[in-house]
Write a structure and sequence with these properties.
alpha+beta; Alpha-Beta Plaits; Dna Ligase, domain 1; 5-stranded mixed beta sheet; about 40% helix
Length: about 350
């Protein structure tokens, strides 16, 4: 049986800011955009003090300000958060070489081959992160990634939770079905239409019903996951599916010249990222969001993968020609997919 740890940093961006600005400790702190709640932008992270006011990630900054005008609003300092994240990951790698780096604020660690109990390892990791970096993390322990991640969210902040296979009926099944990895708001709505409110209720549905309703792949996933079954390995190297850039305008744009320049700049940024990561791309997609939030996408697939800026820019403007610019524009984005390495066949 595997022994998997899921390490989840607590309100990471806000915690880093409170560490380097001790005067912010105990205060509601909101991180997002340029740090100005009067400008467009969304909440990246809110401290636990801010969350008591109903503030959460992805919320518009202006909405967060309305909920808690006394909060301290700060801009995203990704370089600093990345620096601290690397320090956390360096600590984790000392305990096992098998680590899946999920994102800037979380990771999985496989300690199956370690002689010490996973709880002991988790407590030591938490102590080193807290004493060495001045921030806290919550750790979940389970026989697979699914249960470990679920466990890490059960006693936040600064929690340590274990879910074994034997614990599934007692700890896992009573949870709201939305807590199951892979169940988003739309799927939650479908399941609740079927009378399924908890993970345990989902586990009682026959496999053939789930497969008939949601297809073979997702139906089988829901059947296994609701029983706490997950055989997925830790992925130590990721291949990106796309490289993209977006820009939300502070004021809606109607001038074609501004739209054109923004798309050219976004394309340049994407190409620089592709070259840095050594990727070629074949499919280009332009994303445009009007002032009423209606979103349009147009794509073009090239004959051959490329990282040539002029070629990709022409494809971008070819996509733009297929979009009616009859209203003010709120957001623009450029995405390149069908990525390959230059030294590999397509």
């Amino acid at each position: 049986m595997r022994k998997i740890l899921h390490i989840d940093m607590d309100a990471f961006f806000a915690a880093v800011e409170q560490k380097r600005h001790p005067e912010l400790l105990g205060k509601p702190v909101v991180i997002g955009g340029a740090g100005d709640p009067m400008q467009r932008g969304v909440v990246s992270t809110a401290s636990y003090e801010a969350r008591t006011f109903g503030i959460h990630s992805a919320m518009p900054l202006q909405r967060a300000y309305n909920l808690c005008p006394q909060a301290v609003f700060l801009p995203v300092d990704y370089a600093e958060y990345k620096r601290v994240s690397l320090q956390v990951k360096e600590i984790l790698m000392e305990y096992s070489p098998v680590m899946e780096d999920v994102g800037i604020d979380e990771a999985y660690l496989d300690v199956t081959d370690e002689e010490r109990p996973p709880e002991e390892i988790a407590r030591e990791i938490k102590k080193r992160v807290k004493e060495g970096l001045g921030i806290t993390c919550s750790i979940g322990i389970g026989p697979n990634k699914l249960l470990a991640k679920t466990a890490s969210d059960m006693q936040k902040p600064d929690g340590l939770t274990v879910i074994t296979r034997e614990d599934v009926p007692r700890l896992f099944h009573p949870l709201d079905v939305r807590k199951l990895m892979g169940v988003g708001p739309k799927m939650e709505g479908y399941l609740k239409e079927m009378g399924i409110e908890t993970i345990g209720q989902l586990a009682s549905v026959p496999k053939k019903v789930l497969v008939y309703r949601f297809g073979a792949s997702y139906g089988n996933y829901l059947y296994d996951a609701s029983r706490g079954i997950d055989e997925s390995p830790l992925i130590m190297e990721w291949e990106p599916k796309s490289i993209s850039r977006e820009q939300t305008f502070q004021r809606d744009v109607v001038k074609w010249q501004v739209i054109a320049k923004t798309l050219a700049d976004l394309t340049k940024d994407v190409v620089e990222d592709m070259k840095e990561k050594d990727y070629l791309g074949r499919t280009v997609t332009v994303k445009l969001r009007y002032d009423d939030f209606e979103t349009i996408t147009r794509g073009k697939t090239l004959p051959e993968p490329t990282d040539d800026e002029e070629t990709l820019r022409k494809a971008v403007f070819g996509c733009l020609k297929r979009i009616e610019l009859s209203r003010a524009v709120r957001l623009l984005g450029v995405r390149v997919t069908n990525l390959t390495k230059p030294d590999l066949p397509e």
